[in-house]
Amino acid sequence: MVLHKLKLRHIIFFTGILLLLFACSTKKNTAVNRFYHNLTSHYNAYFNGRDNYKVAIKNFEKSYNDDYTKILPVFKYTDNQTASSLSGAMDIVIEKATKVIKFHSITAKPKRKSGHLSKKQKAFYKKNEYNNWVDDSWLLIGKAKFYKTDYMGALQAFKYIISEYGYDEIRFETGLWKARAEIQMKQYDDALTSLQLIDGDKDFPKKLKSELYAVYADLYLKQKKYNDAVNMLNKAIKYKPKKNNRVRYQFILAQIYEHLHQYENATNLYAIVAKSNPPYEMAFASMISRATSYIDKTGNPQPIIKQLHKMLKDDKNNDYQDQIYYALASVYLKTGNEPMALENLKHSVESGGGNTQQKAKTYLLIADIYFNRKAYALSQPYYDSTMMYLDRDYENYKQLKNKTDNLTELVKNINTVQLQDSLQMLARLSAKERMAIINDIIKAVKKKKEEERLAEVEQQQYYYQNNNLQMQQYQQGLQQNQGGKWYFYNPAMLSMGQAEFKQKWGNRKLEDNWRRKNKIVVSFDMENESEELEVDSAGQVVKIDNENPQYYLRKIPLTDSMMTASNKMIKEALYNLGILYRERFNNYQEAVKAFETLIARFSETDNKFAVYYNLYQIYKLEKNKEQEEKYKNLILSEFPDSEMAKSISDPDYNKKKEAKLNHIKELYVQTYLSFSNGNTQLANQMIREYEQMNNSFLQSKFLLLKALNQAKRRDYNAMKQIFIQIGKEFPNSP
């Protein structure tokens, strides 16, 4: 009896093994096979891959830092810098999903039943895949590649799913991800087509509607089609997304309304967001933005100013004081109080904080205030600081960079005039008076250095006191969690080091002399460097700093040659200022001032004609007839043979000139045809006709024809002389 039971167990065991082995095969498509591969793929590789994906994305989104100085993106995506943080996890996801496809895919067709087939049965036999988790695995691979910023690889995966599993509901979610990838690749027309294709399908599931409209909104925001984005975000909210997404959509909507100057809508939405218990950063940004929008709505600044000052006193906002001061400045600006706006903007800069984009915004607003006042020398350093912190993806980055470069050139010329004027003034003083002024300058330099030293000491003390606790926490974490890891292998210590570096030095590129904002190694401009090199009587190179009288004395033009050089610098700078003011800043008043100062101080300047003509053009544009006539007459009297003088005195001069040039062109064509047809005599007559015009237009071409014509007449001597003339007068002529 016992033996019989043992035999029965062995039979059952081996039968189970055989059934398991039979079920493992993917070459046969039976109910047993499908059950086995669906079960093992779902609860093994696919489950692990999907779990890894969810955890990685959750952690990434939790650590994602939104930049509230800009309209937020609809979705939290990786970029080239942050993709590496997810790369390892996404590789595991791809590996797990690939295992499902490789070991559990069933593409063999099942044995067809005889007789009439229902619609559902027919659809079953038409399927390309009989494991329910293979298409999900392909989608998981596509998503993982998307977050690795491999958008092309992701797009290929999504396209494959749509082509192979177009009969399955997964095509809708895949279509959304396909559009996301196309948006990131800036294939906006393709993305719109992808969205419209699934949006128009009657079977599109309601549960994906909110995400659909959010992707639409992302597409329109990327293209700055703000009104379309508003419409889609409202639809996304209507279909009840998860709370975090809803609050994010509402905040973005408020930002767009503010951008579109629809302040009432913006104010209401910011209030809703603030009451929705969002992350504190978003709640804070909502309160700040609501404050600046509210003033536009009501016109009464006092309640907002009071609220912002209350926020300044709240310890929770210690790290956000730069933004609060900026908001206060915005309120004062909107009420026309520029002095208070500037005071609060400077408080914003001084309050520190690691928000570099806020620094950029603050510096830019200060720069704009001074620029609008036409205080260009004051605005330039603030634009320069703006560019140091501003992201390159800023909407008007190129225009702002050009403006900064133009201002830098302008201020350089302003400084040249001021410096040389000051040096010439010193040159006209007695030696005693000169040394008294230089000693006063040196005292001021020493005082400034001492103030800067004390401020640096105070700043360092404050910095180390406030960071002492944080350092202790990091060290404890290092001891508890990192063991004996080297500093550069420890992410926590690296993060702290980077934060310290930025707090002390700001954003600096990795390059030589990175500590210095001014990279000039040697400069002879007083305002740029505080020391210079000089060779002494013994032939040794010594440093002369700005506390040494010789540093200033050596620059003063005490000789005729130095005074000539100084005047030349002033003349060039004044002319450059006139051109810059007129052509790059459209500031005709300052351009006139620069040009007329140049003429008044240096009547025989090399650029006199250009100065006259610029002044004539400016006054003509400004319809100042008296001054226009003045400079017109100066051009006619002092430069009568100039092209401009001729065009001014004869309104038809340019038309006549053009007609004459056209006649010469036609004459050349006829001369060439006569030469080509062997009529050297007629060609020679036409060449003489041209020579009598005394016009240099096409001269090299007529000379070449003349030389070739002489060769045809066998006058090689004349030909040789003409070629020599061409070589001398037109060395660069082709």
| Shape category | extended
* Largest pleated sheet: 2 strands, antiparallel
Which parts are unreliable, with pLDDT below 50 for 5 consecutive residues or more?
Answer: 10-23, 477-504, 508-528
Number of helices: 31
Overall description:
The protein is mainly α and 734 residues long. Among the domains are: 135 residues; 77 residues. The chain contains 31 helices and 2 strands. α2 runs parallel beside α5. The radius of gyration is 39 Å and the shape is extended.
Short description:
By secondary structure, this protein is mainly α. It contains 31 helices and two strands. Among the domains are: 135 residues; 77 residues.
Topology:
Layout: H1 2-24, H2 31-63, H3 83-104, H4 119-125, H5 134-147, H6 151-164, H7 170-184, H8 188-199, H9 209-222, H10 226-238, H11 243-259, H12 263-274, H13 280-298, H14 302-313, H15 321-334, H16 338-350, H17 356-372, H18 376-389, H19 397-427, H20 431-482, H21 491-505, E1 531-535, E2 541-545, H22 549-553, H23 560-583, H24 588-601, H25 608-621, H26 625-638, H27 643-649, H28 653-676, H29 680-691, H30 699-712, H31 716-729
Antiparallel strand pairs: 1-2
Helix pairs in contact: 1-2, 2-3, 2-5, 3-5, 5-6, 5-7, 6-7, 7-8, 7-9, 8-9, 9-10, 10-11, 11-12, 12-13, 13-14, 13-15, 14-15, 15-16, 16-17, 17-18, 18-19, 19-23, 23-24, 24-25, 25-26, 28-29, 28-30, 29-30, 30-31
